Description:
Number of domains: 1
Shape: globular
CATH superfamily: endopeptidase domain like (from Nostoc punctiforme)
CATH topology: endopeptidase fold (from Nostoc punctiforme)
Structural class: alpha+beta
Largest sheet: 6 strands, antiparallel, barrel
Mean pLDDT: 84
Order of helices and strands: HEHHEEEEEEEEH
Distance between the termini: 71 Å
Low-confidence stretches: 10-30
Radius of gyration: 18 Å
Strand content: 35-45%
Amino acid sequence: MSRVLRFLPLGLLVILGACGNRYEYSRASFNGPLQCAPYVRERTGLKLSGTAASWWRQSIGRYGHTHVPRPGEVLVFRATSRVPSGHVSIVRRQISDRTILVDHANWEPGRIDRAVPVTDVSARNDWTLVRVWWAPVHSLGKRAYPTYGFISSQDIDDAS
Length: 160
């Protein structure tokens, strides 16, 4: 009986923590089945594969590139020591000159986040350096991440 009582508070916290959450969780880790690139590919229809950081190079001549965010476009993060495969997220909407909301998977292990703030902190206001909302602290993360820019989810041939 004492064993049940010992774990009761933990069980209540888990149940209460799940109420009203705007996030989807998975049992995945950074290297698990939930990854940003397949998530973005499925949501946008982009015909790109491989690591997220390789999408910028792969998309040259196939999809438009820009440094101005628009809904539906894909923000491509460069590979770094902290994000070795890069990262991709989908622009949901722009809320100011330097802040957008994105949807993305696995920024936090095993999670799909929607309407996450991303702020441009680049010196030239060109979205080549950003800070991303970090839910555990309910604030933008302290680290800035380099990006390539935005890929249009429309084929160049379709845009003409």
